[in-house]
Amino acid sequence: MEKVRGRQRVLLEHLRPSTTPKSSTDLVASICLAGDSSAYERRTDFHDDVVVVAAYRTPLCKSKRGGFKDTFPDDLLAPVLRAVVERTGVNPKEVGDIVVGTVLAPGSQRANECRMAAFYAGFPETVPIRTVNRQCSSGLQAVADVVAAIKAGYYDIGIGAGLESMTTNAMAWEGSLNPKVESHQRAQDCLLPMGITSENVAERFTVSRKLQDEASVMSHARAAAATASGKFKDEIIPIETKLVDPKTDIEKLVTISVDDGIRPGTSLADLSKLKAVFKKDGSTTAGNSSQVSDGAAAVLLMRRDVAIQKGIPILGIFRSFSAVGVDPAVMGIGPAVAIPAAVKAAGLEINDIDLFEINEAFASQFVYCCQKLELDPERVNVNGGAIALGHPLGATGARCVGTLLHEMKRRGKDCRFGVVSMCIGTGMGAAAVFERAGGVDSLSNVRVIKDNDQLSKDAQ
């Protein structure tokens, strides 16, 4: 009955006289809000769509021993900020805001570093910048924040980015701990090491060591194949930096252009030799966990009509976003809850999604989420994931957006909808749905609905 009332309210709203008369030439199609069962055909009439026109990242490098071990965080962010405007021809002064997802650095210091990076990248003083921290989803949250601001009319063009130097900033608790935590189990669970939450997922949902190691092998194999075929060249901005020899202190100028954590020859036999790291007789190892990494990524977003006016090709359309809470003790299950929520918000079903980028924080939670949602392995992390590529916490969300959209572009008409998702420390999950540019077709995903006696029938 409540659903019927909801439909009636929507229809009455459609019938309410407008206070602003419009001519017939102003009429455009609009998505029905009455709860229909399919995603409607979308045309360029939807000028207020928020679209992605560029998405680039640095290579991802192993912290403390990889290609960026001697690189300042702001020198990671600046090149990707510069790339998204230079490669699209957008004047930097037109950017309404830059939002950077970042996790480990002290807030005020990282905010200063991001502002400095914007200046290094050629942005004028008139362009503001801020940071956002929702732990591992910070980069995706930055993108979602920019989308929301554009939708609200605050500005027409913005950048959602992510940055993390895990070489510079370690994962550590600063200051004393509130003794009140001892009396609240959920609060205590927020302090669990992430590896312990991985062990909890494996134990609670019966994810075997073998399944975890198999996921790791697949991640490395796919990432190695993507690198060898040049796929990542579409999204990676080569970074000129320095490497310091720890023995001689001699500096060498280098250009880093590939991810350095991928191990092409990873095998089950090799992984089976590794000991559990977080729990005796556990199953979470260094080989089936995400790598600790340095990197940055940036996504340029704008209203569709602005992109059309400027003649900038559209890479993808932002369709929905959802952040959810889950049990902190098994925080890794977040995507299994967030993905259905985001997909539903987009007016779709899981089977409508052609491609998934799910952050591989740990193989245990990645395997569980894929099993729980009954995802086709051939549609998930087709170019590898964080186990092989690395997981620079604040940058991962923005990195995944670029990886997803560039792969959707390569696949063309066979790939219309994609999802980015990740688990979040302290027990959360986030997900966003994107549509490939040019993916319009005539009600391609209409499904037969039996016994549908509701209003506004679109499939019978």
Description of the molecule:
This protein has 460 residues and is α+β, with helices and mostly antiparallel strands. The chain is built from 13 helices and 12 strands. It has helices spanning 2-15, 73-86, 107-120, 138-152, 185-189, 194-204, 209-228, 268-271, 304-310, 334-345, 363-372, 386-389, 396-411; strands at residues 50-57, 61-62, 97-101, 129-132, 157-165, 239-244, 251-256, 293-303, 316-325, 355-358, 417-424, 428-436. Strand 3 (97-101), helix 3 (107-120) and strand 4 (129-132) form a beta-alpha-beta unit. Helix 4 (138-152) crosses helix 13.
Topology at a glance:
Elements lengths: L1 H14 L34 E8 L3 E2 L10 H14 L10 E5 L5 H14 L8 E4 L5 H15 L4 E9 L19 H5 L4 H11 L4 H20 L10 E6 L6 E6 L11 H4 L21 E11 H7 L5 E10 L8 H12 L9 E4 L4 H10 L13 H4 L6 H16 L5 E8 L3 E9 L24
Parallel strand pairs: 3-4, 3-5, 10-11
Antiparallel strand pairs: 1-8, 1-9, 2-8, 5-8, 6-7, 9-12, 11-12
Helix pairs in contact: 2-3, 4-13, 6-11, 7-11
